[in-house]
Design a protein that fits this description.
Number of strands: 21
Structural class: alpha+beta
Mean pLDDT: 95
Oligomer: single chain
CATH topology of the largest domain: D-amino Acid Aminotransferase, Chain A, domain 1
Distance between the termini: 39 Å
Number of domains: 4
CATH architecture of the largest domain: 2-Layer Sandwich
Strand content: 25-35%
Strand order of the largest sheet: 16-15-10-11-14-17-21-18
Largest sheet: 8 strands, antiparallel
CATH class of the largest domain: Alpha Beta
C-alpha cells in the first residue's frame, strides 16, 4: 500500500511514523512534511491550500490512501475535493468538519441529540456578546466560534475578564458562552467510517504554557496515556458519547469519516462534552499512536471506504508520555532559527531507550533549528506511566536550545 499524509506538524510525523511500521505499507509520503520526518517518509513541498497540486501529487504517488491531518484543510473541504477525484481519503467532509469549525454548531448538535454538554449561548454580534458578558454566571467560559488552533478559549473568573474576552473574540466573529464545569479534562478518540466509531483511546493534554496550569493557552504542551481517573464506568460513558456523536452526524446527513476527537470534562455527573475536533489531536497523537497495535493502514483504509465493521483496535499495554518543547516567545511570537542541540542527524535523540522525537517545526541546514512555535514532542514509553514519564523527561534534558519552553510538572497528578 502507498499512503500520502497531508500536513507538516508533529501529529503528521506521528501518523507517518506509525504507517511506516505497517507490514501492508510499502511507501509513505507527506505534503508538505518537515525535515524531521525524513527517516519515515518522503516529504513533498506542496502547500496545504493548493488542492490541485495535492490531488496531482496523490496521483503521482499512486496513493492508495490519503490521510488528512490538520483541521484547516478539512474544514475548507479538501477531503471532499480529493474524494471527487476518486481517492480513498481518511478525513471528514467539510459538512462533518463543522463539528470543529463551528463551536456553536457543535454545541447545538449536542443539545439536539441529547449528548451531555454544558449550557451555552451563541452571540452573533459584538453588542450581543457584551450584553451576555455582563450577566453570564461566573466563572465563565468564552469561546471563539471558528477555528482558533486551540487558543480561542478564555476561562474568566472576574467580570472584567469576561467582558474583555467577549470584546476581543467577538471582533473576529460569533462567540459562544458556556457554563463552567468542575472536573478534569480528558481527550478521547475514535476512528470512524461514517457509521461506526471504533474507540482509539484517551489521553490527557496540558494546554497552559506554564507549570501549575498557568500562563496563556497553547495548542498543547504535552499529553500522556493511559489516564488513571478514567475507570471502567467512565470509559463506557466516553465510548457511548463517541458512538452517539457519530450517529448524530449521520442523522444530520453529514457522516463522519476520519478521527473524531472529543474534549471531555470528567464531572461528578459523568463525562460532558467541552468540544469536538475533526482530526487526531496534537500532541495527543504523538502519545496515543505508539500505543495502537496492528496494521493500522488496513484499518484506516477500511474506514476511508466505509467498511470498518465491528472489530476492535488493538491497544498495547504500557504507557506513553509526551513533552512538547516550544520556541522562545511561543505562543505570541516564537523565535525562528534558534539552533537545537542534542539531536542526531536523523532528528532523533541518541542514547535514549524507548524514546521517540516527533518534529513539528524544525529545519535542517547542517544543524537543526527552530522553525515555528511548538518545535518537538519528545515521547517516552514504558511499562507504566511513571517509567514513561521518567524516560521522556530524561530525554528532554538532553535536547536544548536557548529559551526553550516546556512543562516540567505534567503527570504529577495521575
Amino acid at each position: 500500500m502507498r499512503v500520502l499524509v497531508i500536513g507538516g506538524g508533529g501529529r503528521e510525523h506521528a501518523l507517518a511514523w506509525r504507517l511506516a511500521l505497517c507490514p501492508s505499507v510499502e511507501d509513505v509520503s507527506v505534503a508538505p512534511g518537515n525535515p524531521g520526518m525524513g527517516q519515515v517518509a518522503r516529504c513533498r513541498s506542496v502547500p496545504l491550500a493548493d488542492r490541485a497540486r495535492l490531488t496531482a501529487l496523490a496521483g503521482h504517488e499512486r496513493a492508495d490512501l490519503v490521510v488528512v491531518g490538520p483541521e484547516e484543510p478539512l474544514c475548507a473541504g479538501l477531503a471532499d475535493h480529493l474524494r471527487s477525484e476518486g481517492l480513498a481519503v481518511l478525513g471528514p467532509s467539510a459538512a462533518a468538519a463543522r463539528i470543529e469549525g463551528s463551536k456553536a454548531w457543535a454545541m447545538d448538535l449536542c443539545h439536539r441529540h441529547g449528548l451531555p454538554a454544558p449550557r451555552s449561548q451563541v452571540c452573533a454580534t459584538p453588542d450581543e456578546a457584551l450584553e451576555v458578558a455582563a450577566a453570564w454566571p461566573l466563572p465563565a467560559v468564552v469561546k471563539a466560534d471558528g477555528l482558533a488552533a486551540g487558543k480561542g478559549v478564555v476561562v474568566a473568573a472576574e467580570r472584567a475578564e469576561v467582558v474583555e474576552a467577549a470584546r476581543a473574540l467577538s471582533a473576529r466573529g460569533p462567540v459562544v458562552f458556556e457554563e463552567f464545569l468542575e472536573g478534569r479534562e480528558v481527550s478521547a478518540f475514535a476512528l470512524c467510517d461514517g457509521r461506526t466509531a471504533r474507540f482509539y483511546g484517551v489521553a490527557r493534554d496540558h494546554k497552559r504554557l506554564l507549570s501549575g496550569d498557568l500562563g496563556p493557552m497553547t495548542g498543547g504542551m504535552g499529553a500522556y496515556t493511559p489516564v488513571a481517573d478514567v475507570d471502567a464506568p467512565t470509559l463506557a460513558a466516553i465510548r457511548d458519547i463517541l458512538e452517539r456523536a457519530v450517529a448524530a452526524l449521520a442523522d444530520e446527513g453529514c457522516p463522519f469519516v476520519g478521527f473524531l476527537f472529543a474534549g471531555l470534562m470528567l464531572t461528578a455527573d459523568g463525562p460532558r462534552v467541552l468540544e469536538f475536533n475533526c482530526r487526531f489531536g496534537d500532541p495527543e497523537a504523538q502519545s496515543l499512536l505508539p500505543q495502537i497495535g496492528g496494521d493500522v493502514a488496513l484499518e484506516w483504509l477500511a474506514a476511508a471506504r466505509g467498511e470498518l465493521g465491528d472489530g476492535q483496535t488493538v491497544l498495547r499495554p504500557g504507557a506513553s508520555f509526551g513533552v512538547v518543547l516550544a520556541a522562545p516567545g511561543y505562543p505570541v511570537a516564537p523565535q525562528l532559527g534558534v539552533p537545537i542541540a542534542g539531536l542526531g542527524p536523523d532528528g532523533q535523540i541518541p542514547g535514549y531507550e524507548d524514546v521517540l522525537c516527533f518534529h513539528a517545526a524544525t529545519r535542517w541546514d547542517g544543524r537543526w533549528q527552530t522553525a515555528g512555535g511548538r518545535v518537538l514532542t519528545v515521547v517516552g514509553r514504558g511499562g507504566d506511566l511513571a517509567r514513561a514519564r521518567e524516560r521522556a523527561y530524561a530525554a528532554v534534558e538532553a535536547v536544548r536550545f536557548p529559551g526553550a519552553q516546556w512543562r516540567p510538572d505534567m503527570g504529577e497528578r495521575p
